[in-house]
Design brief:
389 residues, alpha+beta, twelve-stranded antiparallel beta barrel, two-stranded antiparallel sheet, 5 helices, 27% helix
Length: 389
């Protein structure tokens, strides 16, 4: 316990030394973050200490019980063994209760249900390399055994989600002064999915990191160097969106309606508050067996529905979707730098193929202009491969 406590406080000291992700915060907010971190680490150490003390107390009780039983047996003889047994039976529940109080809280019957992942890039769509140019999402979904539909309350199914994205101007070596700034993003979050009153409900919180700390510019430069094409130049990388940490909340409410056969329509409403503030509404039409009794998770960048849990029948599935978003604010397009935000429209289509042991998805997403100076719309291509050997 002492060693683990020391590790925790060492980690706290490292966090309190103001890492790059926190330097962009206001000093007052930074102080609150430091105090919260210190309080959290202190609470963890208290819990560990109490747990260790409880364990020591339980061990002492067991040893005392053993000694008393041996003494009792020696003094009373073998004919008194029944009394010892009855006495041991009486203290067993108390020992069990103490052990249960020591246990860390767990989610019973939790198991891996699946993964939701998708890679998107405009080179796979319109063949360009600009604006909302690349994204990747990976979600590890856990919970009780999947029974074909979402559980009745949030918290039973948990998705641990990682996202990354790159935003860039049209020209990486000689950008137009009015084009969007370069921005790298990485996000780590926890989301939950449930079904209540006939509605599919998803809610999650992400920690969104932006700026050079994400090293997305270095990744893109390395990929472009490997392909023998020009990457973002030094001036563009130096002028990219600054380091920041943006907690972001997302909530989606949807409802599926059958259309007959294996077709269904799924209208939805989604709200986001954090790195971007938006209100979005739209619908998806799904045709095919591969969407039946599956947990569907929406990709933030394109809006595509990704299968995250459940078995799918072999065959083809088609999905069509459209949505419209009213945008309040975007940290990727700072309005104080003169960017005029546009409301956004997305149209998408995708094909799922499910084999006996493998699966594949390919989709296209048409995206309207995101800011007034953007010269034209763009098309992203998205792909997911699942190969089981």
């Amino acid at each position: 316990t002492a060693g683990l406590g020391a590790v925790i406080f060492a980690g706290a000291a490292n966090m309190l030394s103001t890492p790059r992700a926190l330097r962009a915060l206001h000093p007052g907010i930074l102080l609150q973050v430091r105090l919260c971190l210190l309080a959290l680490c202190t609470a963890i150490c208290i819990v560990l200490f109490c747990g260790a003390a409880s364990a020591q107390s339980t061990q002492t009780t067991l040893e005392a019980s053993k000694t008393q039983a041996e003494t009792h047996s020696e003094t009373q003889g073998e004919n008194q063994g029944g009394d010892v047994l009855r006495w041991g039976t009486q203290i067993a529940p108390e020992v069990s209760r103490q052990r249960s109080q020591m246990a860390w809280p767990t989610r019973p019957n939790t198991q891996k249900l699946g993964t939701a992942r998708l890679f998107s890039n405009d080179f796979l769509g319109d063949g360009e390399d600009r604006w909302r140019t690349s994204s990747y999402v990976f979600g590890l979904i856990t919970g009780p055994k999947w029974r074909g539909e979402r559980p009745g309350k949030l918290g039973e199914i948990i998705e641990y989600r990682y996202r990354s994205e790159i935003f860039a101007p049209d020209d990486l070596t000689n950008p137009d002064p009015g084009d969007r700034p370069y921005a790298g993003m990485r996000a780590f979050g926890v989301h939950s999915h449930a079904k209540t009153g006939g509605f599919d409900l998803s809610f999650g919180l992400d920690l969104v990191f932006t700026g050079p700390q994400t090293a997305q510019d270095e990744v893109q430069t390395a990929v472009h160097d490997g392909l023998g094409i020009a990457g973002p130049d030094t001036a563009l990388r130096e002028d990219q969106i600054e380091d920041a940490l943006r907690p972001t909340a997302l909530i989606e409410v949807a409802r599926s309606r059958p259309l007959g056969g294996f077709a269904s329509v799924r209208p939805f409403v989604e709200a986001t508050l954090g790195v971007e503030d938006s209100l979005r509404f739209g619908a998806d039409v799904m045709v095919g067996r591969s969407f039946q009794n599956n947990l569907l998770v929406r990709d933030t960048a394109t809006g595509h529905l990704i299968r995250g849990a459940g078995e799918a029948d072999p065959g083809l599935g088609l999905v069509l979707g459209a949505d419209f978003a009213a945008l309040g604010k975007s940290r990727y397009l700072p309005q104080d730098q003169g960017y005029d935000l546009e409301d956004r429209t997305r149209l998408r289509a995708g094909v799922h193929w499910q084999g006996e042991r493998s699966a594949m998805f390919y989709g296209l997403t048409w995206m309207s202009k995101e800011f007034a100076a953007q010269e034209e719309d763009q098309v992203l291509g998205s792909i997911r491969l699942q190969l089981d050997f």
